[in-house]
Amino acid sequence: MGERVAEITPKVTAGVLRQSLAFRQRLSDVYRLLPETRCRRRSLCCSLLPEMTLLEALTAVGRVAAMAPAVRMEVTRGFIRHFLMNPVEVSSCPFLVGNDCRIYQERFFGCRAYGLWSRPHYEGEAQRNRKAKEFSRKQWEHLGVRLPREVLEFQVPYCPHVEVAGAGMVEDALLLAAQERLDELSGRLGPWHKVFRTTYFADVSFFLASHAFGLREAVATKFCLVRDLMMGGDRERLIAILEEVPDVCARLV
Predict the structure, then answer these.
(1) Residue 4: is its pLDDT beyond 70?
(2) 1 is a domain residue
(3) Domain span at residue 38?
(4) pLDDT of residue 16
(5) Residue 168's pLDDT is what?
(6) pTM
(7) Are 122 and 96 in contact (CB under 8 A)?
(8) Is residue 142 part of a domain?
(9) % of the chain beyond a pLDDT of 90
(10) What is the rounded average pLDDT of the residues 23-46?
(11) How far apart, in whole angstroms, are the C-alpha atoms of residue 74 and residue 18?
């Protein structure tokens, strides 16, 4: 038997949410380390859900929980769908509505930094992403599933259209310092900060799916659904799964 994978249960999340309020309120201090920007709102950066810290994920959970019930369920189902379907389709961030973000003022660090990194740094991150996709491709093929080439090859392009308010360029060092500060702040949540990164791959959609179905069941459901779709199945099962998604976020606060 292999070593048991650490899991953040809904009970743990509810407790950490209560304990993290002061840290979540200090997120704005970290975000203010980045300059004010003007964006053309082409929503290129919204093509994928960014990696994030546990502290940011908890902030997102709190924001979703505070939404009107119908909107809350729409967004929650959007996250679950994103988790289940991201191997076979390029899906936008569930907070995106048209070209607007439901939580723009509290958007994640990854969203804020997009368009500010230097091109060399961004290309380095793109290369890391390509390696991760190649690893994922091999893992799925080992399970007998071939993923669509258009998804494997998709890459969010470098954006030269973000304008910094005032004069001057933004140095990568400033962004890295802010990122380190964010990581340190999230690290104050104890071991769960690391568990979120290692077990859930810093993916809030995986995090919410595991709270809806359980960790192992979420992974098993995703595998079966993707396998069936790649073998020519329809999306009726996906629709049925989404219809049964519980009101996860409301249960955590």
Answers:
(1) no
(2) no
(3) 10-242
(4) 96
(5) 67
(6) 0.94
(7) no
(8) yes
(9) 81
(10) 87
(11) 24
Q: Confirm if 78 and 84 have CB atoms less than 8 A apart.
A: no
- Given the structure tokens 């859930």, which residue do they identify? 200
* Counted domains in the chain: 1
Tokens 């996709």 -> residue: 133
Residue 218, CA distances (Å) to 80, 205, 224, 225, 231 in order: 9, 11, 10, 11, 20
Say if 71 falls within a structural domain.
yes
| Amino acid (one-letter) located at 26 | R
Is 65:249 a contact under the CB 8 Å cutoff? yes
CA distance 48 to 132: 14
Distance CA 152, CA 68 (A): 36
Answer yes or no: is 78 within a domain. Answer: yes
For the stretch 191-195, contacts whose Cβ atoms lie closer than 8 Å and that sit 24 or more positions apart, written own/partner, are 191/6, 192/8, 192/12, 192/16, 192/54, 193/53, 193/54, 193/55, 195/6, 195/7, 195/8, 195/54
Which letter does DSSP use for residue 188 in this model? T
